[in-house]
Specification:
- The protein is α/β, with parallel strands linked by helices and 430 residues long.
- It has twelve helices and 19 strands.
- It folds into two domains: 40 residues, no CATH class; 334 residues, Metal-dependent hydrolases (TIM Barrel), CATH 3.20.20.140.
- Strands 1, 2, 3, 4, 5, 16, 17, 18 and 19 form a nine-stranded mixed beta sheet that branches. A five-stranded parallel beta sheet has the order 9-10-13-14-15. Strands 6-7-8 form a three-stranded parallel beta sheet.
- It binds (4S)-2,6-dioxohexahydropyrimidine-4-carboxylic acid and zinc ion (ZN).
- The site of zinc ion has 5 residues, from loops.
């Protein structure tokens, strides 16, 4: 196939990219009679990599399956996703990790990498068999109790020691549960007015500070999930300056949305960690631009209607993210001039692949490299409709919003997985 006339990384003059046998065979002015994908005026990026996705299978198939989540990922420009283990049963053994991995392969729309649980049942007391999962067919390279914090410092220390030995990453959901018991919203003016119990930013900041000290001593790689507060950014700055092996992600929603949206108690805006203040979104954008926060990860968290269309206190936290991530990043970072398309490639593809040591994703757009790519229309605009997204659940916080930039096509090792809003080649019906 010839991708005709796109601009790699949004830079320079338009070029043709010839893809043969899954590999980029030629870049320039290509004359061949291969099938043509007209990419005039489009931006070509390496395929996007999401370190934080909830695909809900096994056990939560009323909200998402590996099949529908893979479709949402491909449509969002992703070529690899990391599936969090807070399923039912929890992915805390090689058997379950291998199931998720194989199911992802069967569907074939995106590389699905299971994240293994750090502790048995994500209960926080006993380490899971990290080595068995790392050495399984699923080759698990990231471990997390996401949804819950690994609270016991001794357990976290041991996990980081194992991480050093196995060369894997521990991704922490940083939330001191003693400080957030019953918490429903960011602790601040809005929560006070609405009468919602507060989730203090210090619950995140203190765990990240503790974990950085533990990672320093253990020599293991720590990844901080969904950084939500300006305070945490300060901790990261110091830890990185000290040479500690720590990386961090921010979600699209924490870059764009604030707790002001809670005024009508609509649970679509309930998420953990909570939406915070405009000062926080601003600090997170700056930290991402500077590289203090390494990457964007969606925390795509589908929930069935019975868990979202209910009173605030009873609703589950989480929001859809895979199909809106790129557009939200363009709106919050590219349009204000904080990131260029090179920067988008860095935070949504190269850095995430690097953090987990994925050798076949986040690669340069160059001859001889795998054709794992995302093609984006930078001038398009679209209106988000939850019921038009590929996920089974519809809990998007961007409902009705007009967002910039659209994924036109996604390619995984030379095969088109999504084009013009439809998944290709998979057996997906959603
Ligand atoms: O909002 C969230 N939803 N935060 C988490 O940590 C877990 C996630 C989920 O699984 O729904
Ligand atoms: Zn989390």
């Amino acid at each position: 196939m010839i991708i005709r006339g796109s601009r790699p990384y949004g830079e320079g003059e338009p070029v043709d990219v010839l893809v043969r046998n899954g590999v980029i065979a030629e870049i320039g002015d290509v004359t061949a009679d291969d099938e043509v994908l007209d990419a005039d005026g489009l931006v070509l990026l390496p395929g996007l990599v999401d370190l934080h996705t909830h695909l809900r299978e096994p056990g939560g198939e009323d909200a998402e399956t590996i099949e529908t989540g893979s479709a949402a990922a491909a449509l969002g420009g992703f070529t690899a996703v990391f599936a969090m283990p807070n399923t039912d049963p929890v992915a805390d053994t090689a058997v379950i990790a291998e199931y998720v991995y194989r199911r992802g392969r069967e569907i074939g729309l995106v590389d699905v990498h299971p994240v293994g649980a750090v502790t048995v049942g994500q209960r926080g007391d006993q380490l899971a068999e990290l080595g068995m999962m790392a050495n399984s067919a699923a080759a698990v390279r990231m471990f997390s109790d996401d949804g819950r914090c690994v609270h016991d410092p001794l357990v976290m220390r041991r996990a980081l020691e194992y991480a050093a030995a196995l060369d894997v990453v521990i991704a922490q959901h940083a939330e001191d549960p003693r400080l957030t018991a019953g918490a429903q919203a960011h602790e601040g003016v809005v929560a006070s007015k609405l009468g919602l119990a507060g989730w203090p930013a210090a619950a995140e900041e203190t765990i990240v500070a503790r974990d950085c000290a533990l990672a320093r001593d253990a020599g293991g790689a720590l990844h901080v999930c969904h950084v939500s507060s300006v305070r945490t950014v300060a901790v990261l700055r110091d830890a990185k300056a000290a040479g500690i092996r720590v990386s961090a992600e921010v979600t699209p929603h924490h870059l764009m949305l604030t707790d002001e949206l809670l005024a009508d108690y609509d649970p679509v805006f309930k998420v953990n960690p909570p939406l915070r203040t405009a000062a926080d979104t601003e600090a997170l954008r700056t930290a991402l631009a500077e590289g203090l926060i390494d990457c964007v990860a969606t925390d795509h968290a589908p929930h069935a209607p019975q868990h979202k269309d209910c009173e605030w206190d009873g609703a589950r936290p989480g929001m859809l993210g895979l199909q809106t991530a790129l557009s939200v990043l363009v709106s919050t970072m590219v349009e204000p001039g904080l990131l260029d398309w090179r920067g988008v490639a860095r935070v949504l593809s190269e850095r995430p692949a690097d953090i987990v040591g994925l050798a076949d994703q986040g690669r340069p757009i160059a001859v001889g490299e795998l054709a794992t790519l995302a093609l984006i229309d930078p001038t398009a605009q679209w209106t988000v409709r939850g019921d038009e997204l590929a996920s089974i659940a519809g809990n998007t916080p961007y409902e009705g919003m007009r967002l910039p930039a659209r994924v036109v096509a996604t390619m995984l090792r030379g095969r088109v997985t999504a084009q013009d809003g439809k998944v290709q080649g998979g057996r997906v019906t959603a």
